[in-house]
Amino acid sequence: MLAGLVLASFLVRPETAASKPDGALASAVPEPARSEPMARGAARAPRDVDQGQGAPAPSPSPSDDLVIAVSDSIAEPQLAQDPEPEQVQEPEPTPEPSPPPPAPRPPAPRPVAPLITMTTASAEARMLELMNASRARAGLAQLVTDSGVAVAARAHSAAEAQVRYVYHDGPDGTAHSRDVPACGTGWYGENTGKIWNDNVDALHIEFMAEPWEPINHRTNIMDPAFRRVGVGAVMGADAMYMTMVFCR
After folding, report:
1. Residue ranges of E strands in the chain
2. pLDDT the model gives residue 85
3. DSSP 97-142
4. Bridge-partner residues for 173, per DSSP?
């Protein structure tokens, strides 16, 4: 007897993982598949024949012997070998294109030093003259110009000119971070204001009209501890901006 063979296979493909208001004055001091094969086999039916009790077994006839012989000689058919499951080659994943290297950053533009004109230079000299005249009347030592401090004062005036108002703490940082390094002593005072029609005298008169208390433009000018000053004037679209940084 021949036995039938049934074979089943499947392949599991893994999932692919995806992907200060306007004013004229201002002053300050320091403060993270597996496929399992199915069972298989063959069975043969028994050849025993039920014989009657006491009855002699009939002699097989030649033809019966032939049938039996032929039957016994039939070899059990060889079962076909399971074909190995065809290996499915998965397509190689397409490599993702690597991002282009970042473009080099352009160098940060260097701050342009404010332009010194005859008008602004004359205004700076006039303000120094007026302040020293006021100090002389009070018996105080003269203020000496510090060119390095004047650079910081001009830079602040230029920043004010862009926003068209005066301040101590604003777009270009705080007065402390700007003036302390410029003075180099940790002590500083700052006056700043607007000048119209190149009238430097009007600004100085306004400064000196202030009371002695609290600390203000007048007290900065008349402070005997201050010995150096940087005056920076810059022409803006609406007025001239002038900053005075006082240092010990």
Report:
1. 25-28, 144-145, 188-195, 228-235, 240-247
2. 61
3. PPPPPPPPPPPPPPPPPPPP-HHHHHHHHHHHHHHHHHHHHTTPPP
4. 170
Asked if 238 contacts 173 with a C-beta cutoff of 8 angstroms, the reply is: no
CA distance 239 to 165: 10
Q: What is the pLDDT of residue 67?
A: 42
Q: What is the pTM of this model?
A: 0.58
CB 82 within 8 A of CB 37: yes
- Within 10 A of 183 (CB to CB), how many other CB atoms are there? 22
Residues 121, 123, 125, 129, Cα dihedral to 10°: 180
CB 66 within 8 A of CB 74: no
Q: What is the dihedral of CA 121, 123, 124, 129, to 10 degrees?
A: 130
d(CA 176, CA 188): 8
| Structure-token match 């065809």, residue found | 86
- Rounded CA separation 157/124 (Å): 12
**20 touches 165 (CB < 8 A):** yes
Over pLDDT 90: what percentage of the chain? Answer: 49
Distance CA 245, CA 128 (A): 11
The CA distance from 168 to 36, in Å, is 83
CB 150 within 8 A of CB 124: yes
